[in-house]
Amino acid sequence: MVRLFVPIIVISLAFLSDAYIFHRYINTTSMWRWTWWAPLTIVIGFFIKFLFFNKGLVEEYATTNIFLLLMVLVCVPKLLFSLFSFIPKVGTYIGMLVAVGIIGIILWGITYGFCQLKVREVVYESTDVPSGFDNYKIVQFSDAHVGSFYGPYKHLLKESIDKINSLNPDLVCFVGDIENFTPEELITHQQAFSALHAKDGIMSIMGNHDYSSYIRVTNRERAALVARTRQTQRSFGWQLLENENRLIHRSNDSIYIVGEENWGKAPFPQYGNIKKALSGVDTQSFIIMLSHDPNAWRSHILTEFSPNITLSGHTHGTQFSIFGWSPASMMYKEWGGEHYYEKGEKKCLLNVSTGIGGNFPFRFGMPREIVVITLKHKNK
Questions:
Q1: Which residue of 71, 95, 293, 317 pairs with 85 in a disulfide if CB–CB is 3.0 to 4.6 A?
Q2: Which residues of 88-122 are buried (b: 16+ CB within 10 A; e: fewer)?
Q3: What is the DSSP string of 100-168?
Q4: pLDDT band at 2 (very low <50, low <70, confident <90, very high)
Q5: What is the pLDDT of residue 288?
């Protein structure tokens, strides 16, 4: 019943909107007036297909995206136009502007908007940075969601990897969500990921999507898929940290990279284990923490210890921003950029990347992002 409720509501609203516009603006004697109903008919056809002839989200991912795109392009502008048209005198004009604006945002977002890639630079200067790591360059990227890089978007992932390599990093950190649904998505992009390189290698962690949580399979099948995701990342030559840590040396100095599995507020999985991840770590050392969900920083990490730097992703910045405002700000206290927490003389940084991909190939005002973090030793 729940499965039918949303389609029925959407179709009903779309039908009422189309009927209202048809009778108020289009009901002429021309036989061509009936073409007005063609877009809604196509959308209804998609609904019927997904309700009764659906092979599954993974198998029909591209088709599902086309359907969602049509839904937004066909139904939302007309519904908003209908609502605004009730405003006396100027309603029709306002409704037209809003409808055209929505269509423009969507078309921009699936074309130029999703193709944009920016490099954001962060400088972390502190007396805690070991002198041997002065000017040490870390490249952070997240939320690849490689299943979205298909068709006209396929080349964008390789371009992103090439850009990271061109930055000549000392260390690359990938902070989760390499896939949308299953490790099958990674096969097409194995060569691109394997080409990623840095002096001290590539460290990665798991995100909520990497546990095949969004498809209907048995627990045994899900466990096999997750094992393949882990194995595939390692086949790239990456070091996947599953509640583990690594020590990196420069001269007589060293820093820890601590990576935990996904920890998020419900309904997201909570596999992160701080105590296990810190096994053998001197918490007074310089520590870089990799944790996919930024909610973990305040709720899960800082309650246990204070890493110098925490790198997260997950939010995508909702892949939308207008005039500097993003809906992500309504869901996350820290959803993108740099955030600092002072603990005594210690400066703790949370850096949230808005990702290089997305569940749906759309971005407006929120370009795909690579972050370069340069460590600077500050004399006492």
A1: 95
A2: eeeeeebbeebbeebeebbeebbeebbbeeeebeb
A3: HHHHHHHHHIIIIIHH-EEEEEEEEEETTS-GGGTT-EEEEE----GGG--GGGHHHHHHHHHHHHHT-
A4: very low
A5: 98
Residue count of the chain: 380
Question: What are the DSSP calls for 286-355, one per residue?
Answer: -EEEE-S-THHIIIIITTT---SEEEE---GGGGB-BTTB-GGGGT-SS-SEEEEEEETTEEEEEEE---
Pair 136, 125: CB distance under 8 Å: no
**Whether the Cβ atoms of residue 332 and residue 293 lie closer than 8 Å to each other:** no
Q: Give me the residue label for tokens 């179709």.
A: 11
219 contacts 259 by C-beta, under 8 angstroms: no
CA distance 246 to 377: 21
pLDDT the model gives residue 4? 59
Cis amide prior to 267 (ω within 30 degrees): yes
* Look-up of token digits 């094992």: 227
3-state helix, strand, coil split of the chain in percent (to 5) is: 45, 20, 35
Q: Is 178 helix (H, G, I), strand (E, B) or coil?
A: coil
> Per the structure block, which two tokens stand in for 235?
């086949």
Check pLDDT > 70 for residue 1.
Answer: no
pTM of the predicted structure, to 2 decimals: 0.93
pLDDT score, position 94? 96
| Lookup: tokens for 161 | 């990897």
Q: What is the CA radius of gyration of the chain?
A: 24
